[in-house]
Amino acid sequence: MRKVFPIAAGLTAVVLLAGCSKGGLDRTRPNEFAVARQAPLVVPPNFSLAPPQPGAPRPQDVGSSQQALDAMFGGPAPRSDVEREALDAAGEDVADPGIRSEVGDAETSSVDKGRTTQDIIAAPEGDGRAARVTTP
């Protein structure tokens, strides 16, 4: 037992020192001077940011409630040509601007279509081959 401990300690020291010498594991390390620099990021030419106007209020000066309203209902940001055409085709000019307030009103009447309509709307898409009738 007395001889086992010094032998194990000696073998451990030999193994640890073998990893430190050049004759041990041959590792190739990256050359830090051979690293190439990446090209800087550029803003695309069609980016739709408008330059600041002299005398206009800064965006940081707008209150948080106004920023929340702009985020939810759309602010004064310009629309792209494709978005403008889609809104024109959908009839944006005939939409009631206060419709969100009317829908949330407690006196707005709604019709309960029942469970059957909910099942039809929630049904998976397809030709119906996998459809099954379930009874409650």
Q: How do the helices and strands follow one another from N- to C-terminus? A: HHHHH
Q: Strand portion, in percent? A: under 5%
Give a quick account of the main beta sheet: strands, pairing sense, barrel closure: none
The helix content is 25-40%
Rounded to an integer, what's the Rg over CA atoms?
Answer: 35 Å
pLDDT < 50 runs, ≥5 residues: none
> What is the 3D shape?
extended
Structural class: mainly alpha
Distance between the amino and carboxyl termini? 77 Å
**How many individual β-strands?**
0
Task: Report the average pLDDT across residues.
Answer: 76
SS field, number of helical segments: 5
Protein name: DUF3035 domain-containing protein
Pfam families: DUF3035
Region (Disordered): 45-136
Organism: Stakelama saccharophila
How would you describe the overall organization of this protein?
- This protein has 136 residues and is mostly helical.
- The chain is 38% helix and 0% strand.
- The chain has helices at residues 4-20, 64-73, 81-90, 99-103, 114-122.
- It starts with a helix and ends in a 14-residue tail after the last helix.
List keywords for this structure.
136 residues, mainly alpha, 5 helices, DUF3035
Give the helices and strands, then pairings.
Layout: H1 4-20, H2 64-73, H3 81-90, H4 99-103, H5 114-122
Structure at a glance:
By secondary structure, the chain is mainly alpha-helical. The chain has helices spanning 4-20, 64-73, 81-90, 99-103, 114-122. Residues 45-136 are annotated as: Disordered.
